[in-house]
Amino acid sequence: MKQVAVIVGGGQTLGEFLCKGIADAGYKVAVADLNIANANKVADEINQKHGAGTAKGFGVDATNEGSVIQLANDVNDTFKRADLMVYSAGVAKAAPITNFVLSDFQLSVNVNLTGYFLCAREFAKLMVNHKIPGRIIQINSKSGKVGSKHNSGYSAAKFGGVGLTQSLALDLADYGITVNSLMLGNLLKSPMFQSLIPQYAKKLGIAEDQVEQVYIDKVPLKRGCDYQDVLNVLLFYASDKASYCTGQSINITGGQVMF
């Protein structure tokens, strides 16, 4: 029986890339996203490549408890199991702390942290109920290890994700379920990073077309983080080869963060 991966935030950008890469690796894929049309589109493209029934799209608001519970029930009804849950939903709002509005801070916490908690809880229940030594993987950020200027909401939520990952790992170790966070470097070509370029340019006092190079220069390996870099590490930690690794926050930063 094929293993089943659930990718929350799988309807676009990095999440879409991970869904397709995980399908290429032999998983069936539940593509879950706030935008159900995007989720269905990604699932349809996977099915066209790998055959009908390989993937299915699901709508979910990861910040809403009832919606996440429904997602877990629907995935269970459709695939009868869940072996891997990847939490790839995220949002970033940037502003100096003196101008940082509460609603933006709360949005960052709700999407980046509370959503991770809810999805991990519900899919851990499925894994435990089916006696599956599954994998829970959070897509985190180097901003979960080092503070990020003008990104207090995002960084605070991502730091919280590290603590949550460690706590979940302790809770679930008796069931053989591992929980890890992937700490990404700057995804320079991602829509999220690109959307922040005007604010970063203002923060740094430089032209917008110089921002990417400034961030590349901070990285010892002298390039940004690519989607493929993330998929490569994710597939390892999802596999049996990483069965002795849990509660870890794994850097994918080109050497920019080393602890």
Describe the 3D structure.
By secondary structure, the protein is an alpha/beta fold. It has a single domain, classed as NAD(P)-binding Rossmann-like Domain (Rossmann fold), CATH 3.40.50. It contains eight helices and seven strands. The protein has a seven-stranded parallel beta sheet, sandwiched between helices. Helix 2 links the parallel strand 2 and strand 3. The radius of gyration is 18 Å and the shape is globular. It starts with a strand and ends in a 7-residue tail after the last strand. InterPro entries: NAD(P)-bd_dom_sf (IPR036291), Sc_DH/Rdtase_CS (IPR020904), SDR_fam (IPR002347). This is Sorbitol 6-phosphate dehydrogenase. Keywords: Oxidoreductase.
